[in-house]
Amino acid sequence: MSETSTHSLIRESPVALYLQIEQELRGLLESGDLGPNAQVPSEIQLSDRFHVSRMTARKALDRLVAEGILFRQPGKGTFVAAPKITHGVSTQLSFSKAMAALGLRHHTRVLNATRVPAPAHIASLLGLHAGESVVFLRRLRFVEDEPAALHLSYLPGRYAGVLNGDLSGSLIELMDAVGAHVVDSLDSVEAVIGQGEDARLLRVASGTSLVRIEGVAFSSNRDPLKYNEALYRGDRFRFTVDTSGPPTLRLELKTL
User: Fold this and answer.
1) What is the pTM of this model?
2) Whether residues 60 and 140 fall in one domain
């Protein structure tokens, strides 16, 4: 922030001074002068540069922190948060294809890919008998080299052919290739607390808020084809619902 910013506030304006400072900071973020993880001026620095009280400067920062645009590290200062990604709310949508369409660097670490006896609740959801063979997949998805989501999937054993494909890409495409054509899904979304191995894999502190989307994907005959559970880092994703037509996955960096 340049020293010329000391003259940028219009004190006769009906717009409150803290809102004008907030607008100045937003301008620096939008221009790229302050990028992800960059440290922003402190309350003292802002109050000196804009000739306002520390309370006024703090209020400007507080509003941006509340939006998730900035974050504070105790004892270190205030920093620019990584851009959030807007994600469609449906388990039938391809995470990897959406990332590729957006031009985001992404990769997948396959943690589990095997056949297991179906747990009772999974068997019920997939219309199978408890203990019947199912395909179990667990994959950690990375965006820009940071873990962003943890995906867990169960498929009826008759679709075990997916295990021969590239599981780092689109599971929906692999399912199509073995005759499991997904046409719709029934999904639910809830906030959960990250803990244990899930938190460790996603590199978040235990107790951090995550978003869980779980659901069952169906064929045109309403045969259940897949159970999916996805955990997303709440600090990296924003979810949208588009009811104008068939569900489509739109991923874009949040505008700061």
Assistant:
1) 0.62
2) no
